[in-house]
Amino acid sequence: MQKTTQIYGIRAVLEAINANEPIDKVFMQRGLKGDLYRELEGMLRKNHINASYVPIEKLNRLTKNNHQGVVANISPITFYELENLVEKALESTKTPLFLLLDQLSDVRNFGAIIRTAECTGVSGIIIQKKGAAPVTADTIKTSAGAAFKVPIAKVDHIKDAVFYLQAEGIQVVSATEKTDRTIYDVSFTVPSAIVMGSEDRGISPSILKASDKLAKLPLLGEIESLNVSVACAVFLYEAVRQRR
C-alpha cells in the first residue's frame, strides 16, 4: 500500500506548495514568528490548504526529524479537477452518480464511504480543500484500496460544485433530517449528486438551500441519527436499486 508522504521544515513545505504537490494537511507550531513563517501562512491561505496549529509536542510525535515547527502530509493519490471529473463521467454514462462530502472530518468514515462508493459505481467524489478529512494511510486502508479507483476532486467550496453540477444537468440531493421527504420519495434514475454532511454539524445551511431536493432516512428507533458512512451507504444503494 502506498503511504502518505510526510515532509517537514518551512522551506520544504513552501517548495512542495510551489510544485503543486497534493498537500492534504499542514501542522504548524503555535506561536512561531518570522518572515518565512508568515510567507508560509500566506501560501496556505492562498491555496486553501488545511492547517492546524499544534503544540511542539504534537510535531515531535509526528517526526523525529528537525521539523522547524512545520510538518505536512502529502496525499498518496492524485486529485482531479472538478470540470475534468464531470466531463469524463458524462462521456462514459448518461446517468452519472456523484458524491459530495461537506467537510467530513473523520478519515475512517471517509475511507468507508470511498469503499462503498466504489462498490456502487459512483462516478466521482467531491470534497472541499479546507476542512475536509485528508487522504491518509488510514483512509486508504479503510477504503480497501478503493481510494485508488474512485476519482476524487477537491474544490474551494462545495457550494460552487453544487452550482456547477446543476448547470451540467445533474440534480443535487442533500441527505438531511430537515425535511419531510424520505429517500424513497426521490428519483435517482436521473443524473444525480448526493451530498453528505460532516459528523457533527451535518450539511451547511447554504448548501441545503442550494440543493434541488432534500431527503432523509426513516429512523424507527430512539437514536436520532446513523453514522455518516452507514447513512451514505443506504443512499447509494437506494440509487443502485432504482437504477437496476
Describe this entry's structure for a reader.
The chain is α/β, with parallel strands linked by helices and 244 residues long. The chain is built from nine helices and ten strands. It has helices at residues 10-18, 35-46, 56-62, 82-92, 107-119, 137-142, 158-167, 205-210, 228-243; strands at residues 5-8, 23-29, 50-54, 70-74, 97-101, 124-128, 152-155, 171-175, 192-196, 213-215. The strands form two sheets. The protein has a six-stranded parallel beta sheet, sandwiched between helices. A four-stranded mixed beta sheet has the order 1-4-2-3. Strand 2, helix 2 (35-46) and strand 3 (50-54) form a beta-alpha-beta unit. The radius of gyration is 19 Å and the shape is elongated. The model has no long low-confidence stretch (mean pLDDT 92).
In short:
With 244 residues, this protein is of the alpha/beta class.
Quaternary status of these chains? Answer: single chain
By helix and strand content, what is the structural category? Answer: alpha/beta
Tell me about the largest β-sheet.
6 strands, parallel
Question: Rg to the nearest angstrom?
Answer: 19 Å
Element order: H for helix, E for strand: EHEHEHEHEHEHEHEEHEH
The unreliable regions are none
> Widest sheet: strand order?
7-6-5-9-8-10
| Ends apart, CA distance between termini | 34 Å
SS elements, strand count: 10
Number of helices: 9
What percent strand?
15-25%
Shape: elongated
On the 0 to 100 scale, the average pLDDT is: 92
The level of helicity is 25-40%
